[in-house]
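Hi, here's the filled form for the chain we discussed.

Project: internal
Contact: R.S.
Residues: 240
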Amino acid sequence: MAERIIPSANTLVKYDNPTLVTKHEDRKKEKGRDESPTKGKAGPSGADAKRETEEILNTILPPLEWEEDGQMWRQQVSTNPATRLEVVNLQEQLDMRLQQRQARETGICPVRRELYTQCFDEIIRQVTINCAERGLLLLRVRDEMRMTIEAYQALYCSSIAFGMRKALQAEQGKSDLEAQVEQLKNEKLELEHQIIELKQRAEQADRRAAETRMAEERKHTEEIAFLKKTNMQLKTQLEE
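And the returned structure, exactly as it came back:
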């Protein structure tokens, strides 16, 4: 089979080489299925266990299929057990890709989540090959984790929308309050002008009242002086 650029080159999950899906190959597979029961009776049950493991892996991690140049290609996850060196290499690849793609160490980061999801899928693949039941249990954990994250994402989006609505309402309320403040300022200026005008009127009234009082006192004084003078003249005339 010719070497091909596989679409899984950027994933941490280990895949087999892609295979070309043709009618001839499908007939060979169907022929192999017809002959397998006869061979299975004579041979060991290892082939059945491997086939069952492949089916479980294909259920957990479905094969990749794509069309290129009018031909259909399929690529399945590898069924080869992982060695200790491959596990160490997986960790190194994870760290290297986190740095290359500049994933954030804290907070929400789609890149970091994608890489850790790929790493977890590869761990599920490795565990499923050794123990299918354990792999299925990890699949439940993965699905539950995804549902939890999706619930948090929905809650996050809902909180953002709620915050935006509150911000818009606050902005609108701020505009109303600013208009009210401006109106109150204008009313305050008008009242200050009225106070100044009333003070001026009061001062003018006080001055007029003082002038009137002084004029009356002067008139009263003059009248008293006139009466005294008249009284003195009358006394003088009587004495004569």
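Let me know if anything looks off before we file it.
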